[in-house]
Amino acid sequence: MKECLVVLPVPGRGHLVSTVEFAKLINKHNHFSITVLTMAPPFPDLPTVPDSYFQSVASSGLDINFLELKPVDPPDDPSLDDFILSYIDSHTSDVKTSILGLQSSIRVVALVVDFFATTVQEVGNQLGIPTYLFFTSGASLLSLMLYLPTLDIKVESEFEDLEEDVEIPGLGPLPPLVMPAPLLKKKSKRYLWFVESSRRFRYMKGLIVNTFRELEPAALEAIAEGRSLPDYPTPPVFPVGPVLVLEEKDPSHPCITWLDNQPPRSVVFLCFGSMGALPEPQVKELALGLENSGHRFLWSIRTRRNQNVFSPPTNADLDEVLPQGFLDRTKERGLVWPRWAPQTDILSHEAIGGFVSHCGWNSTLESMWFGVPILPWPLRAEQRLNGFKLVSEIGAAVELEMNYRGQSLVGASEVERGVRSLMGNTEEGKKARDKAMEMRAASRAAVDAGGSSFDALTRLTEQLLSHGL
Fold first, then answer.
1. Is the CB of residue 310 less than 8 Å from the CB of residue 273?
2. DSSP state of 297
3. 275, 47 Cβ separation under 8 angstroms
4. Is 114 an active-site residue?
5. pLDDT band, very low/low/confident/very high, at 320 (cuts 50, 70, 90)
6. Strand, coil or helix: what is 277?
7. Strands 64-68 vs 33-38: parallel, antiparallel or unpaired
8. Residues 145-152: what's their mean pLDDT?
9. Residue 295 pLDDT more than 90?
10. Catalytic: which of 114, 295, 345, 349?
């Protein structure tokens, strides 16, 4: 019987594509047959992965198959609580049925699940199939999550009320407000779910994380040494990243043709992810700061009409959201692109010298892969933590001062200062650029034969093969 891995991502472009790219990686490395179980998005507005992506995987010659789970009714209240607690769990029985169907013709040697699907671990237990976690974020967040049940006991008050830093193994002193928002209110349903989900990590057969040793050495060391999980044996950890989608560049795209006419490392790129959009007053402040900085820029602007957390941004009406006359005043040195932009194509262009980013983990890894320093502008999820670590530990970013305790805007003067620091001849800008280039070399070496991530992938495949014996 052919040996197969069953992989379960969750809906959402960042998680699903990262997980499928991992499936491609492990199939190329050891020729496992892969079956990816996919869920329909819970809401029609949720950004989906285009069919062309799945078609390209299916036609790549790799032994990767997609099996769509049966649709289920979405939550009545489209909130993050219901999405996490109800929608993913409602697929559990069909996951079991699907695996049982596969077992009639193949040997399922392991189940690999997303962080938001850890309850499916019970299916693996029932069927005698070892379950692995594929962690689409970095090792810093993984260390925090492993340590969360311990931290929950140590800290009695709400994290959002703490004045002092929190000590997390491998992260050092951490300002509590840079922790993911769901962790700040201990009495909330989301917080309780995160604590319970993090407890399931300890029962996984392995923790596969999309990072590389040279990027997050302290966090990975803390996890491997058991300091992040002091009350239970830590599962083996496999840092196999960066796992990226690096498409072929489209030289005819207007953003690329514009960049072709700019000097090397002269342009700052501004983009806030597939779900990121700034409110109109903040867009105006950002525009004024960008204009006053004097630097060249490429800015992908999208806006959100619906405040639902899963409502995607839409193409921007530039006359509506930008300050009057901004486009005319900056037309010689800037391009505003009012829709989705080909991020990896842009970051790979030699004209790009800096990146104003929401610090989603995929964007962070892409920026490091191409050696582009970052000005962090986190919006949600674990992005504050990513941005904090990029500045304080990794050193490949320049800090942008933000008020995490309130809802105040980032003023034009702070935007101007941040962009000038990132792109100009300041000491912190030079350090960030040097460190980004160092991470560029390190990330590429990590995935090459003999590199740290290549070796981790080899260890992982050897362990997976042992389940089929």
1. no
2. E
3. yes
4. yes
5. confident
6. coil
7. parallel
8. 96
9. yes
10. 114
Give yes or no for a contact between 107 and 1, defined as CB atoms under 8 angstroms apart.
yes
User: Are 105 and 126 spatial neighbours (Cβ–Cβ below 8 Å)?
Assistant: no
Six-digit token string for 86:
């109800």
Q: Which two tokens stand for residue 363?
A: 């964007």
Which tens digits make up the pLDDT trace of 42-68? 766 666 677 788 888 888 889 999 999
CA 12 to chain centre: 11
Q: Which residues contact 371 (CB under 8 A, 6 or more apart)?
A: 436, 437, 439, 440, 441
Written as six digits, the tokens of 136 are: 């689409």
Contact 319, 303 (CB under 8 A): no
Distance CA 265, CA 368 (A): 15
CA distance 212 to 29: 17
Q: Where are the beta strands (DSSP E) in 146-265?
A: 166-168, 172-174, 206-209, 237-239
> Of 394, 383, 386, 417, whose CA–CA distance to 295 is shortest?
417
* Catalytic annotation present for 63: no
Catalytically annotated residue among 15, 91, 349, 358? 15
Q: What is the pLDDT, as a whole number, of residue 283?
A: 92
Helix (H, G, I), strand (E, B) or coil at 109: strand
pTM: 0.94
Residues 6+ apart with CB under 8 A from 340: 274, 300, 302
Residue keyed to tokens 């285009």: 50
Determine the Cα–Cα distance for residues 442 and 212; give it in Å rounded to an integer: 9
Using CA atoms, how far apart are residues 275 and 272, in angstroms rounded to an integer? 7
Per the CB < 8 A criterion, the answer to whether 141 and 220 are in contact is no
